[in-house]
């Protein structure tokens, strides 16, 4: 069975001052997997984190619909609005 959870920890505007989208991705996967975020492997091992942050930050015109990638047994989907969804691949 696939479990999907969506989280919006910080709005895209807040991310520029508080923390990056990629940090929210790690915390979201940690929440779903009941894992401490520091115990997860580095996100940069599976995706170019600078590129992901830049894609979403520069998507104010709605050009980016979604981007999905695999991380720690989950499919992570990020929308151009910065929403994060995590679904189990098991």
| Structural class category | alpha+beta
Percent strand equals 15-25%
Share of helix, binned: 25-40%
Q: Which consecutive residue ranges, at least 5 long each, have pLDDT under 50?
A: none
CA gyration radius, whole angstroms? 12 Å
Mean pLDDT metric? 79
* Element-level helix/strand string: EHHHEEE
What is the tally of helical segments?
A: 3
Q: Which sheet architecture does the biggest sheet show?
A: 4 strands, antiparallel
Distance between the termini: 7 Å
Record the strand order, biggest sheet: 1-4-3-2
Shape: globular
In total, how many beta strands?
A: 4
Domain count: the total is: 1
Kindly describe this structure.
- The chain is an alpha+beta fold.
- It has one domain (4-88).
- The chain is built from three helices and four strands; from the N terminus they run βαααβββ.
- A four-stranded antiparallel beta sheet has the order 1-4-3-2, with helices on one face.
- The termini are close together.
- 19% of the residues are buried.
- Residues 18-87 form the Halobacterial output domain.
- This is Halobacterial output domain-containing protein.
- Pfam families: HalOD1.
Topology:
Layout: E1 4-7, H1 12-15, H2 21-33, H3 49-57, E2 66-71, E3 74-79, E4 84-88
Antiparallel strand pairs: 1-4, 2-3, 3-4
Task: Record keyword descriptors for this entry.
alpha+beta; Halobacterial output domain-containing protein; 4-stranded antiparallel sheet; HalOD1; single chain; 90 residues
């Amino acid at each position: 069975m696939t479990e999907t959870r969506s989280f919006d920890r910080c709005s895209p505007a807040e991310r520029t001052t508080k923390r990056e989208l990629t940090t929210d991705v790690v915390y979201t996967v940690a929440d779903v997997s009941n894992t401490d975020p520091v115990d997860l492997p580095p996100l940069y091992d599976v995706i170019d984190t600078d590129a992901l942050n830049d894609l979403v930050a520069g998507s104010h015109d709605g050009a980016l619909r979604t981007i999905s990638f695999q991380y720690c047994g989950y499919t992570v989907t990020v929308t151009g609005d910065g929403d994060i969804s995590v679904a189990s691949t098991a």
